[in-house]
């Protein structure tokens, strides 16, 4: 038991696994980074926003090394988007990200994990 503790303690010391739903606040061009673990694979996810004009927020994200861009509005249903974790024909897990508010310099998002059995998310911080 002690060998297990000594071997894996450093891994858990720097890992912060999220519980969902989770609220994040981002400044302009501030990137949030985390790794998604699912089916013995690691999928990196980076999320940031670049422009807020006329109540439209431009979000850039990179998931599984593929860049994407989306525009979000303050009004539902145009304030949400979804990121599939793995494309499996049946009920695949996905992130459901909702743009909540913008207060001049900080955008607030709620992140939900749907069908998330077996998914772990390791928060790596903001840059």
Structure in words:
By secondary structure, the chain is mostly beta strands. It has one domain (30-126). The chain is built from 1 helix and 9 strands, in the order H-E-E-E-E-E-E-E-E-E. The strands form 2 sheets. It has a 5-stranded antiparallel β-sheet with strand order 5-4-3-2-9, with no helix packed on it. A hairpin with a 2-residue loop joins strand 2 and strand 3 (41-53). The longest helix is centred in the first third of the chain and has 13 residues, at 2-14. The termini are far apart.
Question: In short, what is this structure?
Answer:
It contains one helix and nine strands.
Low-confidence residue ranges: 4-16
By DSSP (H or I, 4+ residues per run), the number of helices equals 1
Structural class: mainly beta
Question: What is the helical fraction, as a range of percent?
Answer: 10-25%
Distance between the amino and carboxyl termini: 37 Å
How large is the radius of gyration?
16 Å
How confident is the prediction overall: mean pLDDT? 85
Tell me the major beta sheet.
5 strands, antiparallel
Tally of discrete structural domains:
1
In percent, how much strand structure appears in the residues?
over 45%
H/E series: HEEEEEEEEE
Order of strands across the biggest sheet?
Answer: 5-4-3-2-9
* Global shape: globular
Task: Tally the beta strands.
Answer: 9
Which structural traits does this protein have?
single chain; 127 residues; mainly beta; five-stranded antiparallel beta sheet; four-stranded antiparallel beta sheet; 1 helix; 57% strand; globular
């Amino acid at each position: 038991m002690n060998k297990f503790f000594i071997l894996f303690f450093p891994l858990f010391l720097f890992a912060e696994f999220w519980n969902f739903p989770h609220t994040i606040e981002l400044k302009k061009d501030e990137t949030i980074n985390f790794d998604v673990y699912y089916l013995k694979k690691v999928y990196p996810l980076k999320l940031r926003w670049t422009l807020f004009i006329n109540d439209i927020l431009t979000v850039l994200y990179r998931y599984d090394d593929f860049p994407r861009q989306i525009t979000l509005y303050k009004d539902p249903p145009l304030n949400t988007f979804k990121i599939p974790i793995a494309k499996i024909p049946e009920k695949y897990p996905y992130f459901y990200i909702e743009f909540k508010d913008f207060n001049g310099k900080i955008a607030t998002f709620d992140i939900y994990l749907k069908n998330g059995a077996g998914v772990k998310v390791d928060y790596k911080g903001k840059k």
